[in-house]
């Protein structure tokens, strides 16, 4: 017992838990094969689909890493110097005129140190301020040359380095990870024809249809300007005032109020390019395209009570989760899928594909997998990479193009513009994390913080003095797709943009019972926080256009009468193509069935059954689970019979929210101690209420009884053991793979 458990005490065994050393060195291009990626239906032929696992992985996945090594700095074994490289003799004392005398102005060492410190902060992003990022690569399944000339899709097995940043939207840089919010999913592809930034979200639609409204939306959702509250929350008057006056936001509201707004992990959420983009092939032919990232681990979320508690227990919950998974060699993977369709297809749809508040149902156009993305390396420095990375929707490469989506048009301007003030000038493309792998040659010169040293006397074009260089690429360069003339200049929107509710209804009707219940609870919670009742009434009136069942349930929870439906912009909305889209439920993507990187607590106290602890811990670690022995305090304790154990977490520093499941081993003395510890009872009640997988061994079942949790055979996640620990552990692992057990939920919670 001591040996096994000792190995996981105080993180000493972390490498073994997460994988061996070799797997944790992705720099050499370690290739983790994709275990049967589960994605939606495909319109590719069978041979094309079965062809998608790449047989010959190319070594050296992260070319971008080599480029960054040019600027890496490592002080190991080095002397302390000033910024000018002058060795510093004393870093503890400023220069003074006498030991008790005044500090001297000529102390350039003190002044340089303080001055640099004074300027360490840069403005945070106006939205998506809080985020976490990682390096990795994208790997193409098969050539897509018939559809696009984009070089990253040109060859089977071709790898393109990526840097990906996930984020919340509303909170400030230091806010919590588990706020109810949209999550950013921004991917920078360092292609060999320049950088392509696919700046998406974990939700396939957006709140508004036109960039003209974006500053208003953001002002409404951010902390209210008079008192600076609330932080990282949409549950306040100004947000609901704005969205209740903006019916086009209703569809997106459904997604944000669903469990999509509180993901379990960045690794377990989808990503979407949101807008309709264009693929353009070498012949100049174009198809419309929507981009989808589907996580191999499946789509999983927290429940609200859990998200609230985890925000206190670990405000860095998602950042830590991503970092630890990559650090341990379990870098997350997504499949990139595309919905490809023609302009003629689009014209037939009941909605406008230029309207970012609408999605294209997968039943209408299937999602076809075209490649996979693996994140396998953590940044070396948060500021240099994660903070300074500058994503811009304007960063696009030959073979891709924009459409006339009016939201996208504003974005093409906004991102470049914002980087100029955020990163201090127009040369932000030279910051190492932003610099393309493709060579850069143009006549743009100078500006703040210029790094390149341009040679020669020619900085204009045309020229003869430099032989005409750099010369125009002509058709080999980026050629904008010739969009046909679309009419007179005017302010307004196309007719189909005026239908606001069909897809909100589609989303609600496509959810399971428990997902619908969570949506109702979320609306009721957010609206309960409003101080102006009229806003609440207007919002519930709007929900009547989505579903009377939803509106009534929300109204009941708010103790209010059901208002008349909000008048619609169009009296006769077009009939939607589909009534239900199973792909919109979180349950559509259960994941690969594995439990690697999931976290499990084994509750221990003096006198615990050490044999059971050891057997269960062994089985879990073998399955890739991260195990913590959670004690009444951290440190050594004695198992039944005297064997030494070491608790590497405590009921105070690791409450149940940070775990995916918990095990209570037997051992009479231990169970008696835990029965008298309110924290242990609270731990189990929370874990139960949050739908976690729970296992009791031997007398451990008595602790559940004390917590008010009764055995229930219908609950697939409540295993009251009885059998041998190893056998129980196997059943526990199977239940853990289901992520959560919503079938036990009652309204209000019984425990
Ligand atoms: Fe945006 C950041 C995603 C609409 C203006 N946005 C930002 C980030 C993501 C998105 C993921 C963070 C990038 C990073 O990690 O650095 N934004 C979206 C999506 C949208 C969207 C999916 C709708 C489809 N955004 C949108 C509009 C505008 C902006 C309509 C302005 C007209 N977004 C910005 C910005 C930010 C930004 C102000 C803030 C920081 C930054 O760009 O670099 O320019």
Automatic annotation (TrEMBL):
Residues 38-68 are annotated as: Disordered. SMART domains: Catalase (SM01060). Pfam families: Catalase, Catalase-rel, Catalase_C. It catalyses: 2 H2O2 = O2 + 2 H2O. Its cofactor is heme. Gene3D superfamilies: 1.20.1370.20, 3.40.50.880, Catalase core domain (2.40.180.10). Its EC number is 1.11.1.6. This is Catalase. It comes from Achromobacter seleniivolatilans.
């Amino acid at each position: 017992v001591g040996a096994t458990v000792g190995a996981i005490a105080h993180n000493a065994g972390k490498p073994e838990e997460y994988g061996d050393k070799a797997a944790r060195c992705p720099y050499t291009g370690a290739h983790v094969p994709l275990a049967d990626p589960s994605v939606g239906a495909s319109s590719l032929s069978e041979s094309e689909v079965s062809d998608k696992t790449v047989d010959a992985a190319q070594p050296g996945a992260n070319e971008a890493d080599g480029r960054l090594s040019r600027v890496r700095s490592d002080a190991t074994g080095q002397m302390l110097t000033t910024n000018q490289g002058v060795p510093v003799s004393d870093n503890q004392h400023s220069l003074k005129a006498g030991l008790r005398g005044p500090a001297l102005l000529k102390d350039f060492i003190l002044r340089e140190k303080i001055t640099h410190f004074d300027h360490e902060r840069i403005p945070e992003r106006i939205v998506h301020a809080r985020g976490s990022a990682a390096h990795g690569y994208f790997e193409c399944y098969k050539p897509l040359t018939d559809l696009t000339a984009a070089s990253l899709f040109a060859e089977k097995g071709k790898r393109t380095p990526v840097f990906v940043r996930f984020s919340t939207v509303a909170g400030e840089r230091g806010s919590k990870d588990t706020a109810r919010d949209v999550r950013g999913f921004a991917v920078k592809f360092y292609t060999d024809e320049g950088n392509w930034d696919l700046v998406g979200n974990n939700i396939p639609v957006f709140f508004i249809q036109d960039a003209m409204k974006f500053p208003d939306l953001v002002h409404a959702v951010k902390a209210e300007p008079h008192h600076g509250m609330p932080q990282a929350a949409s549950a306040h008057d100004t947000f609901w005032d704005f969205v209740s006056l903006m019916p086009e936001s209703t569809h997106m509201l459904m997604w944000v109020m669903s469990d999509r707004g509180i993901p379990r992990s960045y690794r377990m959420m989808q990503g979407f390019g949101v807008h309709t983009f264009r693929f353009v092939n070498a012949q100049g032919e174009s198809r419309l395209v929507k981009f989808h990232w589907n996580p191999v681990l499946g789509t999983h979320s927290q429940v609200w009570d859990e998200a609230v508690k985890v925000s206190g227990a670990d405000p860095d919950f998602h950042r830590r989760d991503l970092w630890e998974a990559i650090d341990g060699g379990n870098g997350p993977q997504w499949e990139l899928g595309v919905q490809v369709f023609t302009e003629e297809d689009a014209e037939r749809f009941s909605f406008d594909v230029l309207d970012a508040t609408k999605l294209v149902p997968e039943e209408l156009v299937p999602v076809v997998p075209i490649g996979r993305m693996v994140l396998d390396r953590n940044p070396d420095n948060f500021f240099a990479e994660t903070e300074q990375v500058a994503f811009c929707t304007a960063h696009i490469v030959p073979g891709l193009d924009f459409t006339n989506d009016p939201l996208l048009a504003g974005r093409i301007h906004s991102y470049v513009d914002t980087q100029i003030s955020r990163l201090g000038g127009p040369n932000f493309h030279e910051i190492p994390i932003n610099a393309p792998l493709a060579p850069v040659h143009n006549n743009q010169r100078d500006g703040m913080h210029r790094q390149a040293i341009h040679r020669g006397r020619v900085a204009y074009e045309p020229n003869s003095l430099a032989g005409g260089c750099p010369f125009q690429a002509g058709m080999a360069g980026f050629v904008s797709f010739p969009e046909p003339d679309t009419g007179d200049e005017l302010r307004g929107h196309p007719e189909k943009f005026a239908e606001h509710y069909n897809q909100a209804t589609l989303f609600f009707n496509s959810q399971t019972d428990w997902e619908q219940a969570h949506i109702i609870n979320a609306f009721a919670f957010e609206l309960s926080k409003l101080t102006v009742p009229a806003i609440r009434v207007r919002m519930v009136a709007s929900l009547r256009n989505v579903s009377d069942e939803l509106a009534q349930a929300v109204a009941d929870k708010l103790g209010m009468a059901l208002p008349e439906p909000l008048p619609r912009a169009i009296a006769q909305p077009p009939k939607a193509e589909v009534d239900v889209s199973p792909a919109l439920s979180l349950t559509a993507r259960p994941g690969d069935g594995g439990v690697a990187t999931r976290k499990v607590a084994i509750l221990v106290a003096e006198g615990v059954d050490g044999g059971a602890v050891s057997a269960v811990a062994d089985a879990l670690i073998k399955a890739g689970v991260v195990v913590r022995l959670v004690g009444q305090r951290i440190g050594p304790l004695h198992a039944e019979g005297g064997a030494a154990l070491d608790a590497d977490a405590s009921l105070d520093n690791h409450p149940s929210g940070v775990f995916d499941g918990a095990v209570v081993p037997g051992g009479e003395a231990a169970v008696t101690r835990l029965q008298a510890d309110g924290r242990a009872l609270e731990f189990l009640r929370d874990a139960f209420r949050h739908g976690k997988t729970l296992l009791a061994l031997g007398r451990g079942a008595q602790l559940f009884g004390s917590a008010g949790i009764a055995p229930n055979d219908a609950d697939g996640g409540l295993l009251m053991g009885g059998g041998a620990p190893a056998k129980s552990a196997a059943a526990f692992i199977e239940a853990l793979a289901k992520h959560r057990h919503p079938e036990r939920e009652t309204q209000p919670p019984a425990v």
